[in-house]
Every structure is written in structure tokens, then in C-alpha cells.
Amino acid sequence: MTSPHEALLLSTERALLHRVAVAQSEGRAPSLVGAVVRDGRMVWSGARSGTDEDVPGADTQYRIGSLTKTFTAALVMRLRDEGLLDLSDPLGKHLPGTGAGEVTIAQLLSHTAGLAAESPAPWWERTPGSVRPGLADVLGDQPQLHPSGRRHHYSNTGYALLGSLIEAVRRRPWEDVLRSDILEPLGMRRTSCHPQASHASGWAVHPWADAVMHEPAVDLGLMAPAGQLRSTAADLSRFAAFLAEGDERVLGVDSLREMRTASAPSEPGDWDSTYGLGLQIVRRNGRTLIGHTGSLPGFVACLWVDVEEGVAAVVLANATSGPLPAVVAADLVHIVVDAEPRFPEPWRPMPDVDQDLLELTGTWYWGTSAFGLKLVTARGLELYPLSGHGRGSRFQARPGGAWSGLDGYFAGETLRAVHSPEGRLIHLDLGSFVFTREPYDPAGEVPGGVDERGWRTLPL
Predict the structure, then answer these.
(1) Are 87 and 81 in contact (CB under 8 A)?
(2) Which of 185, 297, 433, 448 has its CA 20 to 30 A from that of 136?
(3) Cα 74 to Cα 78: distance, rounded to the nearest angstrom
(4) 247-to-15, 78, 312 alpha-carbon distances in Å
(5) What's the confidence (pLDDT) of residue 390?
(6) Nearby residues of 239 by Cβ (< 8 Å), 6 or more positions away
(7) What is the pLDDT of residue 351?
């Protein structure tokens, strides 16, 4: 429960609309739409327009540019979850003959494959896909600019390859797979590759005069999986809820958590940001936001989700440049979180307590460093340094009586409870580190042994 009230406070709604109004005015956007999601549902939307066109709303379509990449990445993760590919597979295993077959699927998803950012001229965002009928036309003569796996280098062409990979594995067009596997299950009926009424027109605004020029809208062909989609604030609110909570009809929460985990550092910039698998991850005002930005000639877009707070925001505008949707969407999230802090879930006792697990809890020592071990839900454990400094992690139970690390230094490492032949708990083994009940407890089988003379004072 976030709040006893489903609707936002009127003061919060006014602050949100004011931020949208300032963004539309200062950004000189013909129109701008914002929406906020809290705990899985859209709780507010607002728009401002400076043209004679109908004032847009939450159901008005805009082009969303590279936000399309997150949809493409989710489709690839579905293929992985169905056992049809592995993220470590080289692309050529499933899509031969591209000239980039040695890069892995994970590298394409995380923009670490070293591929060029753009396809060869002419500018792909303003020319029809028919001028690039094959992947060789998309990649050009020098598709790889950097060694794969060595650096983050954003690549639109890499997501064109992922779209073709999806088509090769599913044996259906990317757009059809997208509709059946994501859009229909999530109820995103106003998201499409081609315009549906009502939709906003794309405009360029003159940098030195309040004049506009119409921007072309073309079918991007093989580049469509990198940036073709059109959507609405309402539909993207549904997608934001999915990114935060998962949906077993599309992807479970574990796969989404994997997408939200940083895969490589991004290039230096104004934001503290990294990139996961099809998702940007940014830190702003002390909060972590996941999602994606997008732009095409005539349009800019952004979707940010604060998973911890259960709040997301969408911003869409129909101007080539001017509005800063990433900043505005982040501000919308912060307005709600700051004005209406999330209510914590009520504390409840566990439904049952395993006495053997209860025996594991309490204070443990790794050498001379003190740690606490706490029992959490679903037979999980949480290890944390008592001094405030050190390596802590959460662990999930796995068959056989061991636990796997979920985060931090011990992510993926195995935690085991070691017992004597008589069944007495001796120590914990965490990736070969021995944790004992007392500092360097001789009974704990400490590697290297323990000085028989025990603890002494100086001078010796």
C-alpha cells in the first residue's frame, strides 16, 4: 500500500501540471504530454499544446524512438526464457551471414558489441528502409569499430540485428511477434509501428525563431526494432508497470531484474548512468531510475521507473529538439515521491519459522569483522556488516540446503551452513570464506589455522 488514497493530492497534481507546462513553454514544443504511474496504474496525466491541433491527451500517439529498444530487448529475453537461445550465444549461431556473427546476444543488448552507432549514409531516421534492404546495407563495410565486450558504445545497428534475430528464431515478422508477445498481453492497443488516429504530427522548431517545419515520418524497415514504434502516455504507463512488477504472460520479475542490472558503464556524460539489457539505468537526486529515452525527427520521449518507490513517469513531445524529456520525466517522479512518500508495508510476523534456519541467525565473524545474519521471507537470508563497512548480500534458498547470493560482492556465490558429524553448527562457508561465531574460532575450521596461544596483548 503506497497511500490510503488512490488519487494524488490536488497540490501534487498542480505541481505536475506546472512542470509539464514549463517544459512545453521553455522547450518550445508544439505539444507535450506527461503521465505518472503509481503502484501499477496511471494516476495522473496532463498535457499542454501551443498549436491549433486538438489538445493531446493520454491516448494521443507520439513516436517514441529508441524506447522501442526496450520492447525489442524484452522479446529477446522471452526467447532466452523459452530456451530458444542463450544470451552468451554468438549472433551467428542463430542469424548467420551478417558479418558480425562473433558478437554475443548479450553484447548486442547492452551495446558492448563494438558495432557502429549508425548505419551508413543517408541518415536512416529520415530515409525509408527501402534504401537499406539487407543487413549488409545496415551494417556497411566496417560494422565493428571497437573490440567486442570492451566498452559501451551505443549502437542502433545492433538493435536492427536483434530484430532480425527475433524474426529468424520466431519465423515471423518482428512487428507480429511484438504484438502477440508483448502488446496484446499488456493491453497496449494504441502502440504500433504506423500511425493510428489520433496522433501528433512531428515538427522541427527553428532555433532562432518561433517557426516550425514538418518532419518526415518514414517506415524504417530493418531499423524498425531500434526506433519505429509509436505509443501513448497511457500505453507506456502500462509498460512502465510491467517493467517494475513483471507479468508472467510476458516476462517474470527475475528476467526483468536481470534487464535492470548494469552490464557495462556508459560513456561519460551529464548523468550518472549505466546500461543494462535494453534499459538505461540512471541515478538522479539520490534515486535510481530505469527506463529509456527516445527521439526521432519530430519527436522526443522518455519513460523512467523508480522501482523502489513504485512510481514511474512518461513524457512525450512532438519536437525534434528543445524539450528535455529525461529531465522532465525524472522531475515528475521526484514530485510525487517527495510530496507523497510511499507508506511502508505493515510489519507482519512470518507465517512459520524453521528452527534450523533460526539457528543460523545472529552475529558471525569473518576474521575480526562482525556481521549480522537475518532470516527473511521465503527461507532467504540477509548478511550485513555490523560496522557499516564491508560486503553484504541477500541470499535466496536453493534445493539441497544452500543459498545463492542475489547482489553485491557475493552475487551468485554459494552460502552453506557447515555442521559437525554430530549435527552441531560449526561455521558458515561463503565462497570459501569461513564465518565463525567468535573471531577466529578454532572450532570453525579457519583456513590457515588459529594460533594456539590465542589472543594476547602487546608488547609480546
Answers:
(1) no
(2) 297
(3) 6
(4) 31, 12, 17
(5) 83
(6) 70, 71, 186, 188, 231, 303
(7) 86
